[in-house]
Amino acid sequence: MATLKRIWLALNPQEAAAWQALLTTAGLAADRQVDYTVGIFEGETLLATGSLSGNIIKEVAVTPATQHENLLAQVIQALLDRLDDDGVTHSFVYTKPTTVKFFLSLGFKQLAATDAVVLLERGYPNLTDYVASLEKQRRPEKPAAAIVMNANPITRGHAYLIETAAKVNPVVYVFVLSAERSLFTADERLALVRKVAARWPNVVVLPTNDYMVSNTTFPSYFLKERADADVAAVQARLDAALFKQAIAPVLGITRRYVGEEPLSPVTAIYNRELAATFGSAIELIVVPRLMIDGDVVSATRVRAAMAQQDWKTVQQLVYPEVYQEIKERSTHGN
Question: Whole-angstrom Cα distance, residue 54 to residue 117?
Fold first, then answer.
């Protein structure tokens, strides 16, 4: 008789190996960026599995021999029950195109798709709510350009990218990542970008919520050098597809600006996938990075200087209002 139970990937090597083997058989990468995993076993044999990473359902697979036995529904229900127990009302799922109909039958709605993976969501607030918030900020000028940044914190390099776009576009939408995986909180980063961007009246600063370079669309971004390149490419392609299919049309965006990326392999992968996915629909403009004292200006460099209390370097790399916030933050932190 088949039994559903939790799989502890870090504690049970035998079950972890079975989990990885099942995912490989299903044509999925064994992505261990998960918080909770369940499996259906018959004896020692793993027949089906699924995982949660935050509010994201992923790594869902069923053995070919048992795909007719409704095991997938049992796995998904167990994961949804876990989310309900945690009070989570909004969830996402990554799945292969062949299983989209199943998730649609459970009330999920498709957000974006590539040839390899589809992203769907269920619950509220959802993409419709986010799109409605964007529509309220839409300006009529064309062409419209976009920049997506983490700005952890915003540097003179970020400002240079904004200025470059603002000089040649009637309106520029700057999206600041909402994911809470940075030294500065989402609210802090959004506020600082708005302060700096106030220099250019044609710039509109907006949060990304879950829909751009987020824990949902592109979790590998936050792992940087620890990210698996193949997994990062799949996620980047999906993130780019979501922007192209759902975000850009709402604001009339036809250009996307990115910084040239000599430092981060994951960001370089992202830029590559943006170009491939956008095609002729959205022009990708790669801007050479700003240099100060012979080195690329980056938020990583600012955070390293902060850690060393090298305030002279910090002051060189950020605008005065940002430096003031950083100093106050450091003082209060001590």
Answer: 19
